[in-house]
Write a sequence for this structure.
């Protein structure tokens, strides 16, 4: 089911895996032991299609990586020490989101089954943020088997759990693994896995340095099977109906997820709005706007406000994905990476537009100027699209750096200057009632920018998220 | 580190000779311009530096694209070399342009499209360096740098267009004389010859420096490699 | 040496420690075992004076917590799973900084001894950022024993180390502990500590649930003592000369550390400067500044630029302290918390002033206006002091929140509006050559603000850093 | 949760009765103002709401200081209650002020010291709520909230002073008539009586609401407690 030959992985000059060979037959549970820093996580990330092998062959579930990554992802479930769950969604909503990303059919019924299995039916409507670490980890396992994958990868799933939670997790792991799935689980602690695995491989200095099978396993396994007679070694492959999750479907799922989470926490929108109002306040006192200057300066103030508030929103929106490992969760889904890009872009655009829709009337009242102008609406839409198209790309980069606190505006502002110029000019053209012919060059520039940068971001987004 | 190949050594010598010749042409061969006098001499260096900056800018973008296709660390080194050279030459071009523009504009700086675009390009490249500094993993650093070079390379022409639409008072050097009040002047054929010679000279200097900088990058990589081996 | 009676610790409604009793005689090495989440780290943080006990008595090194915290800190060395070291300083500089914070005399000699002991003499001039995890942990132990403390606390020091590094660490721990020091070390792994400790206590559900002494220990310990005849159970207390680290001394050490690190990495200053220039660029295009408006708007643009760039710098400056646990390192030093506040404030002020010194001439050239005016310099100084005084306090709060990416400007801007107003008015007064009497009200307002907020921040900073 | 104590129930009734009485005084007892007509009636609510907002603001700062001294979660609940009440009443005061000012200023909003300071106070309190939202540990949340309330409480008067220095066109209500053009008017004794009665009424309403909100906070804490116990 898993076959790895002469796998080499280098990070720059540092070689982590040095010609590793590894094989797991169908239905076996292999524990991958090794001290911290031995490359277990790197190896598992390669199996999970999250990281590219430098050299060597990797086959998972009958498909080759990285070429057939999408097919592998369809048949793969991953549990890491991060939960890969959204804190501001309920247990049920998290499962629903991932179910849509994997194209699971009859999803509601499947979610009920999973919640029953992981013992969280009574907490289904509670936010994952309020869950204990153990409950989160159980739900993470539920997420991993939601689409009924053939192969399961567990990366130190016991990290941070107390004894009771560990025991509960072990019971669940045994149950999940007992359904004829192929399982690889890493651990730095032999005691943790000896009841579970049928084979132990030791990863050391970048190769499998030892391997041992556990004879007692078969007995235990057999007993476990007796308890649940419906499962067999060759499990029926049609328990869960899946269709290939469509491009638009995945985009829709991501946007729905972002909006649902924001509707509940409102932390991103309220932060952007408060910041936007503060920027306007600061402009007011900094520029001492008398009515005449104000008329000229209004478009500039508006766009500077949108630009500053926008970076705040982009930063937070991506930080949410990164902090709890959710970005990995998205990347594990069998959808095109560009669907992730477009999904995030659309939700960022939605946040930006909501902020603009609130800021415009507030500004109108505060400065006693009428900003309701259909031309202005078009400019704001075009400008926001371009800003968010580049901003989403660059914020996915910024959030993966050490200096993520400060990097986004520094990366973003120099390249969005043309948008800001064109948007300011076009806005002031409409507000001053200029002829359409005078405004059109700027509108055209905005359209050109939007089209070019959406296309470029679409093409390079892969490189930003894939290792 | 291998010693410098013969061609590079020859190139070193040619670069120095060409530079001396260009100096000679600028100050001895090219005629004095009527209104601006000696200040106009700066013009040749301004143009030549801007030209080399442009070359480096294009080289960086190309190296970025190649890196994204090949995933070979070599192209990251080339990209960084091109960016650094471009950064320095554009900075000189901007400074020279400011000095040259002082008498005609009455100020060291005007928000004129070419000058402003060059300044924004500098910002893009400084942001590029800050981005690199913020990433420890060399693979990711190379990937993100390449993507950012690409984004910058596409944004800069649009920036230029948008600022051009916004306002323009840059001297139109070759062409009509209508914008005389804004600092343009008539190019005599001697001036033209000097300009093209300066462009050629600086192109050679660019190739020479580029080569040296790439070798330096490779050297730095080897040092990193050695340190890593010592660690293990 | 350590005596804890009926210790209770609650976080809000959640009780972590439930009447814990714990005693360690002088010179003993106690291993504190317990599963993840059992409260080991919380307990150690209380012993380390980093967290306040809710109820109960805690005595460490003969002093009571939290009343005599400063005396405890003088006699305490802590190693946690975070290194508490600055990545942009060399090994030697890190030790020098902490030595100054603890008031160690004959520091250079002591640093040489420590580097020798932890085997990093050859790497003394390399940045800690370039160290492997194991080297960092060894240096962290060097940092903990630099001031020759009587009590050592180790919180899972093996986390994230590979086998070789663990072995090396064990040798070092044995050597360090063998000098008659009292040691408490937590672990979730018995195997890890059985060679080291003379007693094992198990922490479970908030109390010590079991305790066992290790009979073989005495023999081993005795052998270890034979190897190094100079150490005795009652070690001479005068190996390292210390004086009480003065208030000004500590401030100086912090400022020196920040400037030295920044001089090397230049990442904070370059980020602030680039951002400042970008803000000016955006203002230029947004406001379409013709020469007349420009004259009026200059002070406003300058101050808005300083305010925006300032939040970036404050954010990064505090994130550096927080990310590698260095804030804990500062808090462990036997100096008044307000020294930490003033130290950070002074270095933030230095960064802000450097940025302003660069921005002013650049702005002068770009806009062809003369900004060299002694009055303006005074205003900038006064404004920056107030801004940084509040900003340092609020950024120490913001960095400890979940939404740290976005929170600082939102917290800071509403309360610094009076500074911005007064600074803009005073600046434009000076630039327009108004009479001093017209400008003075604003200068006075700035001074009042600076004095009041420095005093308030001084008083409440304790509450921001202490749990 | 204990049932409402008798005093609170009595207070509920008194609050409603007082509010009705105040309504009656404003619309039936107080005379119509000459220039502004019925719009002037809003003035009473504007003043009363601002007054209650101020009370809440002070209560929050005091609760913050007490929390920092006592480290008792109870004071955090009180502080949050005061902030929320203050937030709502200041918002009503600002809205009422805008409507009242519309005829005299010709705009819903002017950058007038009291109005602007109230708006900034609203920002401080919204930031306060965002700060609370960003912290999960209740102890730390309470500590940071208390510190921020304190910082806000000190900054607001200075903000007011600085904006006042900056510009002022707010109607000077009680005092000379010189600023008539800016929306001031003569207070008759009946108007004055109505105003003070409104102030008194809203103070009682404040105490009533404050009490209810604190009880709500305690209830929320108990719910949290129960959830936690269920978890363990």
């Amino acid at each position: 089911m898993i076959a790895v030959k002469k796998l080499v992985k280098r990070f720059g000059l540092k070689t982590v895996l040095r010609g590793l060979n590894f094989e797991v037959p169908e239905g076996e549970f292999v524990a991958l032991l090794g001290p911290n820093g031995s490359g277990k996580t790197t190896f598992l990330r390669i199996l999970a299609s999250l990281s590219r092998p430098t050299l060597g062959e990797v086959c998972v579930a009958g498909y080759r990586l990285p070429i057939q990554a999408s097919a592998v992802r369809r048949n793969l479930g991953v549990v890491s020490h991060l939960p890969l769950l959204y804190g501001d969604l309920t247990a049920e909503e998290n499962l629903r989101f991932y179910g849509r990303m994997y194209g699971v059919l009859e999803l509601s019924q499947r979610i009920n089954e999973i919640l029953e299995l992981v013992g969280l039916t009574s907490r289904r409507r509670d936010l994952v943020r309020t869950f204990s670490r153990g409950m989160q980890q159980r739900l993470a396992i539920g997420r991993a088997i939601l689409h009924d994958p053939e192969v399961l990868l567990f990366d130190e799933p016991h990290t941070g759990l107390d004894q009771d939670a560990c025991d509960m997790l072990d019971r669940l792991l045994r149950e999940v693994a007992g359904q004829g799935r192929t399982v690889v689980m890493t651990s730095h602690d032999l005691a943790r896995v000896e009841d579970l695995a049928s084979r132990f491989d030791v990863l050391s200095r970048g190769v499998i340095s030892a391997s041992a099978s556990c004879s007692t396993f078969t007995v235990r396994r057999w007993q476990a099977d007796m308890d649940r007679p419906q499962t067999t070694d060759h499990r029926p492959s049609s328990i869960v109906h899946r269709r290939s999750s469509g491009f638009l479907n995945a985009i829709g799922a991501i946007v729905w997820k972002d909006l649902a989470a924001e509707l509940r926490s409102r932390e991103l929108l309220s932060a952007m709005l408060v910041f936007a109002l503060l920027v306007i306040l600061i402009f007011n006192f900094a520029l001492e706007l008398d009515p005449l200057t104000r008329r000229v300066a209004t478009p500039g103030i508006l766009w500077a406000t949108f630009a500053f508030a926008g970076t705040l929103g982009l930063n937070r929106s991506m930080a949410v994905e990164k902090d709890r490992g959710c970005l990995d969760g998205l990347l594990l889904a069998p959808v095109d990476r560009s669907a992730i890009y477009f999904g995030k872009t659309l939700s960022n655009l939605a946040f930006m537009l909501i902020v603009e829709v609130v800021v415009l009337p507030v500004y109108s009242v505060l400065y006693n100027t009428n900003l309701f102008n259909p031309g202005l609406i078009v400019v704001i839409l075009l400008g926001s699209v371009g800003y968010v198209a580049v901003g989403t790309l660059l914020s996915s980069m910024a959030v993966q750096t050490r200096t993520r606190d400060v990097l986004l505006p520094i990366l973003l502002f120099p390249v969005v200057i043309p948008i800001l110029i064109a948007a300011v000019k076009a806005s002031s053209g409409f507000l001053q009632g200029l002829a359409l012919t005078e405004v059109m060059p700027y509108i055209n520039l905005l359209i050109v920018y939007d089209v070019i940068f959406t296309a470029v971001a679409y093409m390079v987004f892969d490189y930003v998220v894939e290792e | 580190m291998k010693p410098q190949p013969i061609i590079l050594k020859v190139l070193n010598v040619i670069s120095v000779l060409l530079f001396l010749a260009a100096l000679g042409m600028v100050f001895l061969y090219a005629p004095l311009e009527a209104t601006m006098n000696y200040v106009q001499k700066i013009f040749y260096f301004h143009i030549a530096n801007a030209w080399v900056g442009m070359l480096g800018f294009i080289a960086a973008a190309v190296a970025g694209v190649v890196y994204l296709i090949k995933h070979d660390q070599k192209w990251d080194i080339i990209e960084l070399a091109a960016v650094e050279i471009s950064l320095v030459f554009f900075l000189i071009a901007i400074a020279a342009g400011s000095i040259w523009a002082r008498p005609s504009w009455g100020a060291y700086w005007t928000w004129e499209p070419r000058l402003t675009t060059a300044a924004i390009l500098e910002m893009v490249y400084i942001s590029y360096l800050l981005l690199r500094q913020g990433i420890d993993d060399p693979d990711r650093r190379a990937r993100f740098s390449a993507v950012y070079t690409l984004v910058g390379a596409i944004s800069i022409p649009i920036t230029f267009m948008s600022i051009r639409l916004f306002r323009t008072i840059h001297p139109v050097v070759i062409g009509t004389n209508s914008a005389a009040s804004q600092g343009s002047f008539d190019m005599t054929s001697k001036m033209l010859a000097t300009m093209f010679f300066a462009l050629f000279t600086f192109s050679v200097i660019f190739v020479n420096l580029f080569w040296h900088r790439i070798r330096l990058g490779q050297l730095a990589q080897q040092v990193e490699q050695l340190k890593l081996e010592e660690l293990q």
